[in-house]
Amino acid sequence: MYTAPPTRRTTVIVGKESTGKSELAAALTGRSPTSTNIRGSTIACETYQTRNDVFIDTPGILFRTDTITTRTALEQLQTHDRILLVVKATHIDDDLADLLPLVAGKQGVVVVTFWDKVMASEFTQQVIGQWAQSAQVRFMPVDARHLNSRQRQQILAALQTPTKFPQHWQPISASWRIEPAPTWLEHPRWGWLLAILLLLLPAVIAVVMANGVAEVLDPLVQAGLGPLVAALSRTPLLLREILIGRYGLVTMGPLLFIWAVPTVILYALFLGGYKASGLVERITVALHPLLRPFGLSGRDLVRVIMGFGCNVPAVISTRACSSCSRQTCMSAIAFGSACSYQFGATLGVFSAANLPGLVVPYLSYLTLTTLIYTHLVAPKAARSLHNALMIEQRTFLELPRWAAI
Ligand SMILES: Nc1nc2c(ncn2[C@@H]2O[C@H](COP(=O)(O)OP(=O)(O)OP(=O)(O)O)[C@@H](O)[C@H]2O)c(=O)[nH]1
Ligand SMILES: [Mg+2]
């Protein structure tokens, strides 16, 4: 007998940026989102569905800034009443103070992520217990990357009978705040230099490794193409030139792929690793002071570099950039990293000419001209010393997981 599926409950997952909302949504539903998550940051609302539930994963809310993604998250808050509020254990006092007013009067539960970074002692448990009691809201401390089935069941069960977030509740202070340990990237004098070297490193390694692969494949492909080239040599002159001339489709095309594609793939893998480990954010924080005179922030720089991988997601993900710098950032992508093939193909040409060292002047030239261009097009206000809209927080570094890359 046919039984109609029960009406699904819709829950909106909200929280600040990089607090583990997407990890939670995936762990709670065991599903992938219906839309793509570009390089780890949610830039539009994503829906995760199970038989009984619909979870709407919103982009992280950024305070002290004015991004389209933040506006999107706030719109979802207005239209739905069941909320899964995500706060980070390491900055729990700030997160609660900032986010509770946004959800007051709505129903839901609070999930405290990054619990693995807090010493799970009697004291910390006590604080959570006291909050739950005085606010009459459930608090669930978890490591969102490794949600066990008991925690999953508890959160889903709590969402079946959500309680109201209080209107006027002042939580007693947790009194802990855990900042990621500083690295050499935070060195006041040399941090920026290390950041630049780390940014260039993937390009250099990708070129060296990819060229190694291409050197092996090149003669094999040329030999494989031999019979086809011979067969095509009897075609009319114009067609022959187009197909097997010096820059012909058959003679040159496959070789370009061999030289460029490994570079593109390796570069994308390196950047994926940087992003999944949190290193990209650290680099952007280190470079932030150097970028401000050009009307850009570290956040924008990541998007420009993403353009080398593919400029479409790079431009789309500028939704998470401050409105103040977004246009400059898109201009910089269009100017400096306009095409996903630009990088691979250019390096392929350098290598084919046996001059791979040209990568250094090439990148320097590209950087310099892009910076001059952004300086010219950026609004004066964005370049101001007083512009605090675009300052980033330090992220925790971790070993990149394959799945995340
Ligand atoms: N140590 C630790 N890392 C976590 C936890 N939750 C998430 N992460 C890591 O934090 C990073 C961000 O996680 P996401 O799930 O993408 O965070 P998000 O809140 O969806 O981020 P935005 O969509 O950009 O707002 C990833 O590298 C996760 O692996 C956690 O509980 N503990
Ligand atoms: Mg997300």
Question: What do these coordinates show?
Answer:
The protein has 405 residues and is of the alpha/beta class. The chain has two domains: 9-164, Rossmann fold; 184-383, no CATH class. The protein is 54% helix and 9% strand. It has helices at residues 21-29, 68-79, 92-103, 122-135, 149-160, 191-232, 237-244, 249-277, 279-291, 298-309, 311-316, 323-336, 340-352, 359-377, 380-383, and strands spanning 9-15, 46-49, 53-57, 82-88, 107-113, 139-141, 163-164. Strands 1, 2, 3, 4, 5, 6 and 7 form a seven-stranded mixed sheet that branches. Helix 3 links the parallel strand 4 (82-88) and strand 5. The longest helix is centred in the middle third of the chain and has 42 residues, at 191-232. The two termini are 45 Å apart. Residues 35-39 have low confidence and may be disordered. Bound molecules: guanosine-5'-triphosphate and magnesium ion. Magnesium ion (MG) binds next to helix 1.
